[in-house]
Design brief:
Largest sheet: 4 strands, antiparallel
Low-confidence stretches: none
Strand order of the largest sheet: 1-2-3-4
Order of helices and strands: EEEEEEEEEEEE
Helix content: under 10%
Number of helices: 0
Shape: globular
Number of strands: 12
Oligomer: single chain
Radius of gyration: 19 Å
Distance between the termini: 34 Å
Structural class: mainly beta
Length: 204
């Protein structure tokens, strides 16, 4: 007779924790990263008086389960935020965002002390107001601590169609070398992957 597979247990879950504590700001598109006992959460909030969303960050130690007051990492860097992403690893925490889904650029900030303090923001790809888009879709830290960025842009062919691009930072977001075009299709829809993601084989 066939034997039934043993039941898989997901473990127990504690009560939910409020990260975005200001109801006047709201929260959309949350993302989470974990490394070395610290939980990092980012989301897009909409503070009063802002022309659009802003990239907010909060942290928690796994032992306490309480989160720090959210801070805007995009304030003074870009006036709006479309999506925000976070990754963490042995060389630091990196937060990135794109400012607009149709005409935006990509920015990033890094922390080398687990999210307690943040270095100045930097423009990584694109330019505001040039009529082209750069949509950040994933940040990933590999087993060597290198940070990878995947994004979708129509800058390759003067706005005709979007292509997948990749950048890798060997110093946890301090510098971002020239990117690489992953696909080079001439027409949009031939390889229409607007949400590129990154993974590492055998890194389990």
């Amino acid at each position: 007779a066939a034997l039934a597979a043993p039941l898989a247990h997901a473990g127990s879950f504690g009560g939910e924790k409020f990260v975005s504590t200001d109801p006047t700001v709201g929260a959309q598109f949350p993302e989470i990263a974990y490394y070395n006992g610290v939980i990092h959460v980012v989301f897009v909030g909409f503070p009063s008086g802002s022309p659009g969303g802003q990239a907010y960050y909060s942290r928690s130690t796994a032992a306490t389960g309480t989160f720090s007051a959210p801070v805007s990492l995009s304030a003074g860097i870009s006036s709006t935020v479309d999506r925000v992403h976070v990754t963490a690893g042995p060389n630091g925490v990196v937060v990135g965002w794109d400012s607009d889904g149709t005409t935006g650029a990509i920015y990033s900030r890094r922390s080398t002390d687990g999210g307690l303090t943040w270095q100045a923001g930097q423009l990584v790809a694109g330019a505001e107001g040039d009529g082209l888009y750069h949509r950040l879709t994933h940040l990933f830290t590999d087993s060597s601590g290198f940070v990878h960025m995947a994004y979708y842009t129509n800058a390759d062919n003067a706005g005709v169609s979007g292509m997948v691009h990749h950048r890798m930072s060997c110093d946890a977001g301090a510098t971002w070398p020239t990117d690489t075009a992953v696909n080079t299709q001439a027409l949009d829809g031939e390889l229409d992957n607007e949400q590129p993601r990154i993974a590492q084989a055998g890194a389990g």
